[in-house]
Amino acid sequence: MLRGFYTAASGMIAQQRQQEALSNNISNAQTPGYKADQPALRAFPEMLMYQMGNQHVPTSRGVNLPDNQPVGPMNTGVYVHENLPDYSQGDVRETGVSTDLALINGNLPDAAGNLFFTVQNEDGEERYTRNGNFTVDGAGFLVNTEGYYVLDDTGAPVQTGGMEFNVTEDGVLQTADENIPLGVAYAANSNQLAKEGDGLFTGEAGAVPAEATFSVQQGALEGSNVDSAQSMTQMMESYRMFETNQRVLKAYDESMGKAVSEIARLG
């Protein structure tokens, strides 16, 4: 019976964590470039149950041999194995702001591949983002909303010299003095990247393959790929599953109470 407590409790914890992930998705439904998290539930290893018994062997000494008959498998609960981001392209909307850039995927050589802008965090390390909500700081550098430098294809901060610049569809930032190719990175397996917060990803990404195609749209932003209606539906389903496990836990608790207070009294 105690094992039933653990099974029901693990189900409640898993649904609570799923609710947290879905709530975070809904709260970022309007965040540019946000990629929705998909909680992956996984079952704990199954246990094969046996009925313990004895088999009498008709010998002069009357030997009893263990005879265990398989009853069947028993699941011991579930847990949230990991949150997998959904890297599908979000809707692109025009903003009319010249520093806003939307990265639009074309044909990519890998099914799990994706493209990202590269930025430099406060520690000087490269990070990747789909959020093209950029601006120009007081020194004339292109930065994101956190103040991180946007990088070019050589890994250097992009110096625009001001707000007057143009970005071509192939990702080249044109100023009055020079043309600067933006640093667009390609991850062949996006699932190996990890979210770091503020729309940033960390992991392994490299140069864009020659066979990959993409475009950059100036004055536009890629929106979040969160489906708010679907997320609300999933939250309701998760809440009902939480309540179901809660009722099971309550039933086990009442049974244990009777075992302690009533069965012991009969003895």
Can you describe this structure?
The structure is a single chain. This protein has two domains: 2-84 and 238-266, no CATH class; 92-222, no CATH class. The chain is built from two helices and 21 strands. It has helices spanning 2-27, 228-266, and strands spanning 37-43, 47-51, 54-57, 63-66, 69-74, 78-85, 92-94, 101-105, 114-120, 126-129, 135-136, 142-143, 149-150, 166-167, 172-174, 179-181, 184-187, 194-197, 200-202, 214-218, 220-222. A hairpin with a 5-residue loop joins strand 3 and strand 4. Helix 1 (2-27) packs antiparallel against helix 2 (228-266).
List the helices and strands and how they pair.
Layout: H1 2-27, E1 37-43, E2 47-51, E3 54-57, E4 63-66, E5 69-74, E6 78-85, E7 92-94, E8 101-105, E9 114-120, E10 126-129, E11 135-136, E12 142-143, E13 149-150, E14 166-167, E15 172-174, E16 179-181, E17 184-187, E18 194-197, E19 200-202, E20 214-218, E21 220-222, H2 228-266
Antiparallel strand pairs: 1-6, 2-5, 3-4, 7-21, 8-20, 9-10, 9-13, 9-17, 10-19, 11-12, 14-15, 15-16, 18-19
Helix pairs in contact: 1-2
